[in-house]
Amino acid sequence: MKTSINTIIILFLAGLIISCDKSEDDFNIESIADTQWKLTRITDKSGVTSDFPSGIDDFEIVFQENGKIKLFNLCNYSYADYEIADHNSIKISNIGQGTEMYCQPDIRMDWEDLFINSLVLAETYSISKNRLTINCRDSKLTFAFIDKS
User: Fold this and answer.
1) pLDDT of 114-123, one tens digit each?
2) C-alpha pair distances (Å), 5 with each of 13, 16, 31, 40, 129
């Protein structure tokens, strides 16, 4: 009888240890303030999803606590403002154009235009594990969390 109780305890502890292993998706972000993300895909209004092209630098977005956004690795845009309201609504405005360059390769320019044109139509956002989704009027932007540590 003592052996079976020990076996049960060992199996219980082993299960507990295994369930405590964390994957890269196991963390909770309660606010987008002071977070950094990289664009991974855009889904259009008909549901067609396009993954971010691997041949260009990642488009990154940083939501600062002061309501400002920094945009990295874009050719022509580098900043914006954002406001969060009830029910996870988000408004992105004052997207600043740093330059008016033509970007190479063409796919980079196409993605930048698509990204910015979607971002200005942002309506709501949600965070699930390490993914940020911004629902826009005509599309959905999906981002992966970038751990700054």
Assistant:
1) 999 999 999 9
2) 12, 16, 45, 49, 37
Burial of 19-31, coded b for 16+ CB within 10 Å and e otherwise, reads eeeeeeeeeebee
What residues contact 90, with CB distance under 8 A and at least 6 apart? 32, 82, 83, 84, 122, 123, 124, 125, 134
Cα separation, 64 vs 66, whole angstroms: 5
The token pair that represents 108 in the structure block: 């980079």
pLDDT, residue 34, reads: 93
Query: Which residues contact residue 149 at a Cβ distance below 8 angstroms, ignoring those fewer than 6 apart?
Result: none
The residues, ordered by sequence, that sit 6+ positions from 100 with a Cβ below 8 Å of its Cβ are: 76
> Taken in order 12, 16, 19, 21, is the CA torsion positive or negative?
negative
Start-to-end CA distance of the chain, whole Å, equals 50
Alpha carbons within 13 angstroms on the beta-carbon side of residue 30 total 0
Global pTM reads 0.79
Distance in angstroms (rounded) separating the CA atoms of residues 139 and 115: 10
CA distance 38 to 59: 6
